[in-house]
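Sorry, explain these tokens?

***
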Amino acid sequence: MKVKPFGTDLDYEIEWTLGDNETIASSDWTVAPEETGGLAVVPDQDLISAARTNAMLTGGVFGNLYEVTNSIVTSFGRRDARTITFILGITEAEQ
């Protein structure tokens, strides 16, 4: 589980293990649960770079848990997904 500091917009990255000459063809980010004022992926801020995907996350309700899933399809047609659980709060450095 990762802490996303409340009130921040931050980039999060996933590095994927791909085969030789394989690239990421598409990437889709989703957040659960969907709720008013909840955590969201900033539109048009997600990136694909070689074997990495990146998304900027914004918002969220303090103290709530969110699951952020990145689903990819590679140039070889392989599909994979990874989910990161976030809690909205303060980091140890902010205490």
